[in-house]
Design goal:
With about 400 residues, this protein is α+β, with helices and mostly antiparallel strands. The chain folds into four domains: about 80 residues, Orthogonal Bundle (Helix Hairpins), CATH 1.10.287.110; about 100 residues, Sandwich (HSP40/DNAj peptide-binding domain), CATH 2.60.260.20; about 35 residues, no CATH class; about 90 residues, HSP40/DNAj peptide-binding domain. It is about 25% helix and about 25% strand. The strands form six sheets. The protein has a four-stranded mixed β-sheet with strand order 10-11-15-14. The chain has a three-stranded mixed β-sheet with strand order 1-9-8. A two-stranded antiparallel ribbon has the order 2-7. A hairpin with a 2-residue loop joins strand 10 and strand 11. The protein is elongated, with a radius of gyration of 42 Å.
Length: about 400
């Protein structure tokens, strides 16, 4: 029975480039691998032919011998090297059966992943097909900076304006003093309790079950005994009272950073930071917009009509504001630098805007009624004329 043409086996042309041969082999190998088709004898035979074809055509010297003699063997290679014809006739050689699957070129992700400790397609495919664990040393911990912590803090409106210094209790962690953040005692490796020495743990996805590298021992099947104080975590819990200074001008959502008061680092790495997230309450009179403050102040008809100096509230206490004669209800007056201190520039601050609201007098006597009637006779104006009304 004539041997199949290796180029036909891989489905490539005779002048195919090495990368085309490699690509074709990878595609067919994934399709016909025995572990993907358990119990299928035809797939197993097909896989052996694909592997044999790839082994010859992917090697430049072997491919030259195959192209010359139509087959490959060590005898043919020696004959070609000496310049002789094929001993025993073309096709006397034969590929090796049962060659293990070549995972070369199956890296998943960028090429840097292998050097940086990332998983490759070679590792994942080997796990899927039960390739078994490799002989690895238990992974050693590396310095790792601690995580940051965020804590909310409720403030009154006045505290947000003026700032404050307070003490808060933070439930954080610090590097384990016994193992110095390593998480283990540094003794001789013992069987990993997670994978029981297999180096792999079983995962399920729908109907499929597959093996994955053990996350606790890194596939080694062994790990060093965990530190009894931190239980292998490298850090221990700690409740700490921290002095916090909240600057003037914070608003709801402001973030105040306290360096080094986050979670503890490992192996000498620095701890994370603590971030205080402020939540500033409302005020019964003032409204804040950025660094500016807005307030509404009632005035009498006489004060609005004749003008007056009135007393208004500010965040620092009472202040005088001049109302010019003829002021209408809703008029707004600006009081410079009476607003909120700026977080970006502590030397600057916003303004306060005062909106006056003219209030009607209470008619408490007949004399007051007569005065209002007299006023209406002396001032027969119609404020609705501008609206086309009489």
């Amino acid at each position: 029975m004539a041997k199949e043409d290796f180029y036909q086996v891989l489905g490539v042309k005779r002048d195919a480039k090495p990368e085309e041969i490699k690509k074709a082999y990878r595609r067919l190998a994934r399709k016909y691998h025995p572990d993907v088709n358990p119990g299928d004898k035809s797939s197993e035979d097909r896989f052996k032919k694909i592997t044999e074809a790839h082994e010859v055509l992917s090697d430049e010297k072997k491919r030259k011998v195959y192209d010359r003699f139509g087959s490959y063997s060590e005898q043919l290679a020696d004959a070609a090297a000496r310049g002789h014809g094929a001993p025993g006739g073309a096709g006397a050689g034969g590929g090796r059966a049962g060659v293990p699957f070549d995972f070369e070129g199956f890296d998943w992700g960028n090429t840097a992943s292998a050097s940086s400790g990332g998983s490759s397609f070679r590792d994942i495919f080997s796990d899927l097909f039960g390739g078994g664990k490799s002989e690895k040393e238990p992974p050693r911990p590396v310095p790792q900076k601690g995580a940051d912590i965020e804590m909310p803090l409720a403030l009154s409106f006045e505290e947000g304006v003026t700032g404050l210094t307070t003490n808060i209790t933070v439930n954080r962690s610090e590097q384990c003093p016994r193992c110095q953040g390593a998480g283990d005692t540094g003794g001789n490796p013992v069987t990993c309790p997670t994978c029981h020495g297999a180096g792999q743990v079983q995962k399920a996805g729908g109907r499929l079950r597959f093996a994955q590298e053990c996350p606790d021992c890194g596939g080694a099947g062994k790990r060093r005994p965990p530190c009894a104080l931190c239980n292998g975590k490298g850090v221990v819990p700690k409740a700490e009272t921290v002095k916090v200074r909240i600057p003037a001008g914070v608003d709801t959502g402001s973030r105040v950073r306290i360096p080094g008061k986050g979670e503890g680092g490992r192996m000498g790495a620095p701890p994370g930071d603590l971030f205080i997230i402020t939540n500033v309450g409302k005020h019964k009179h003032f409204t804040r917009k950025g660094d500016n403050i807005y307030v509404k102040v009632p005035v009498t008809i006489a004060e609005a009509a004749l003008g007056a100096r009135i007393e208004v509230p500010t965040i620092e206490g009472k202040a005088q504001l001049r109302i010019p004669p003829g002021t209408q209800s809703g008029a707004q007056f600006r009081m410079r630098e009476r607003g909120i201190p700026s977080l970006r520039n502590p030397q600057a601050r916003g303004d306060q805007f005062v909106e006056v609201q003219v209030t009607l007098p209470k008619v408490i006597s007949e004399e007051t009624k007569e005065l209002l009637k007299r006023y209406a006779q002396l001032n027969p104006e119609n404020p609705r004329v501008a609206m086309g009304l009489e």
